[in-house]
Amino acid sequence: MGLIKEVINGTKTLLTGMKVTLDNFRKPPVTSQYPMEKIEMSEAFRNVIVLIEKEGIGSHDCIDCKLCERVCPSFCIYLDGERPEGLRRKRSTKFEVDFALCSDCGLCLDVCPTDTLGYSKIHDEAGYNRSDFLYDLIEPWADKEEAARERLKEIEAEQAAERARKAAARKAKKVKREK
Amino acid sequence: MKTDVIQLFENPYLALGVTIAVIMAYLSVNAIMLIWLERKLSARIQRRIGPQRGPFGLMQQIFDMGKLLSKELLTPEHANKLLYVIAPILVFAPVVALSSLFPITSTYIFHDFNIAIVLILAISGINVIGIFLAGWGSNNKYALLGAVRSVAQNISYEIPLILSVIPIVMITRTMSLYDITLAQGTYPFVLVQPIALIIFIISATAETNRAPFDIPEAESELVAGFHTEYSGMRFGLFFFAEYSNMIFACALATVLFLGGWRGPFLPDAVWFFIKVYALIVLMMWFRWTFPRLRFDQLMKFAWVVLVPLSLINLLITTLVLKIV
Predict the structure, then answer these.
(1) pLDDT tens, B232-280?
(2) Model ipTM value
(3) DSSP states of A63-114 as a string?
């Protein structure tokens, strides 16, 4: 009697198993054809940092403050910059990241005063030497630099005008009160 | 009326040659296509895409064939050379020899043999010897263990296999596959012998060494079982033999239980192959669903469940035939 029960039970489980595979057979495949199609990485994905385009400037807004270079626990960020003619802020001329040293901690992103740092969506970089992982973050923006500087001049002029107007208003107020 | 293709030729040797050539060509193409089908099916079951070089991944099989053909035929150092070489041929030969017996269409058949079932059951046992020689000849512990397991398993499952065929012979009172197909004019025998069909399918899965009964080539325990030492086209022959045995077992089940070429609307041969390939897909479905049995479970299943069940089935069939 036990044997018959075992056989019936076994048959049931076998049919259940076959149903599971049939259900999976009918669903579409979940694989993506990697080299042919690129995978969309998630928002939280972390890889080497990049300079993000800031609105209104048409380029990054790195001001060579060197905060990221200083906060970096792995010392993998190398910055250099200059102050262009007629501009209040500095512009970085060199922004290199040695990704072979980077630990993706994200402190540079947190510390960036202009929020112009972000994570790239690269996920399949490979190299033969350590030097292959030395990323130049300025280079992709090089051809937009001239235009960006012009825009920045306009923006700064506007800001200066605004500041001057405010200062004048404040002064006027002060004069009024003194009277 | 039926015509034996073999009798169309004047020269019997020419007839033999043509028959073997046609069957070999069919079995080779069939094996290649079945490997492709199995890879695609397993991929879909595991929610992958599977091979995809060329249209529907078909080119993958051509490349694989080229690879197998171009590889060196290695012989292990202390192998028994004679046994090692003839083993793959012995595994593949019975299927080729027996495939000519199947009535694929109602008009043209290769040869109608009046004791076909006895011949099939006798000769299909030869490939066990082939497997054992492969294991023994290659002088490898894994191969030998796989071969020993294979022999034990095949002998055990041959009994329920034969016992599930006997009721059909009792009903039809003939052993010719053509006449058995003719006898299923009104209904296929699966309606009167469902248990026999189930036993037959299970035993056939075990006989062809396929999962969940693939203990002779259990990868996790025995590397690759009896064909561990084989390379190149000798291994390819084992591979072909597996799929040829599959189609052979499914064709036998089709003729015995599903009415062979009988079916409405479509031509005879189409119905035959539809049934055969449906059964093959079922066997592939088994393979990619069920985990492998342990060896004692396997033997227990054969002797404690299948043999008594088929004996009871045989007894009931006998009683019903006697009364009716």
Answers:
(1) 788 888 888 888 888 888 888 888 888 878 777 877 788 888 888 999 9
(2) 0.71
(3) ----HHHHH-TT--EEEEEE--TT-SS-EEEEEEEETTT-----HHHHH-TT
CA distance to A34, A164, B118, B176, B321, per residue, from B169 (Å): 56, 109, 10, 9, 12
Residue A27 distance to chain B (closest CA, Å): 7
User: Cβ(A102)–Cβ(A122) under 8 Å?
Assistant: no
Between CA B265 and CA A19 the distance in angstroms is 31
- Residue boundaries of the structural domains of chain B: 70-323
Interface of B with A in 6-65 (CB under 8 A): 41, 43-49, 52
Looking only at the bridges linking them, the beta strands covering B3-4 and B108-109 are: parallel
pLDDT, residue B218, reads 66
Q: What is the pTM of this model?
A: 0.75
Cα angle for residues A13, A18, A20 (degrees, 5° grid): 95
The residue among B104, B134, B109 whose CA lies nearest residue B242 is: B134
Distance CA B234, CA B142 (A): 18
Residue A66's closest CA among A98, A114, A102?
A: A114
Q: Which residues of B touch A24 (CB under 8 A)?
A: 44-47
Q: Are residues A121 and A41 in contact, defined by beta-carbon separation less than 8 angstroms?
A: yes
In tens, the pLDDT along B139-195 reads 888 888 888 888 888 888 888 988 888 888 888 888 888 888 888 878 888 888 888
